Amino acid sequence: MTAVIDASVLAKWFVEEDDTAAARRLQKLKLFAPDLLIVETTNVLWKKVRLGGFDSAFLAPAVRVMRHANLTLIDSLTLADRAVEIAVRLNHAVYDCYYLALAEQRNAPMVSADDRLGRKLAAAPGVTPAKIVGLAAFVADLSENHND
Q1: What's the pTM value of the predicted model, to 2 decimals?
Q2: Going by CATH, does the domain composed of 2-143 fall within 3.10.310.10?
Q3: DSSP state, 13?
Q4: What is the spatial order of strands in the sheet that 110-112 belongs to?
Q5: In 10 A of CB 82, how many CB atoms?
Q6: Could you write out the three-class secondary structure of 28-81?
Q7: pLDDT tens-digit readout, 37-51
Q8: Domain limits, the chain
Q9: DSSP character for 113?
């Protein structure tokens, strides 16, 4: 099974939260993301360091894990036209729409732990055939179908 993941999922591989175990289960899948995923995720992790929750020593190992993960990064430039089109139609931040453009291109679900974009997409049918699935729901579906 394949999926497109965003920074809200990848960051959970490194930060213990309620759904960290669920996020880590996705490591067994064939994962795709725009290459901006690394920039976004390292920024999320840096913010956690800056806010005092973590020691900065964990950043370099996290980057190494990202580098060697079962994750295919797609050049964002190849997704830019469609991402901008989706962003304009949704009135939403362009960087999130890169993930939707890739999910559309790969005909794969976009898995996210952030439900804001999903709510916006649900309220605007026809913008993209891409589907956003919440992290918990996606992992529950994996378990039901024994695809883990």
Answers
A1: 0.92
A2: no
A3: G
A4: 71-74, 30-34, 2-5, 110-112, 132-134
A5: 18
A6: HCEEEEECHHHHHHHHHHHHHHHCCCCCHHHHHHHHHHHHHCCEEEECHHHHHH
A7: 999 999 999 999 999
A8: 2-143
A9: S
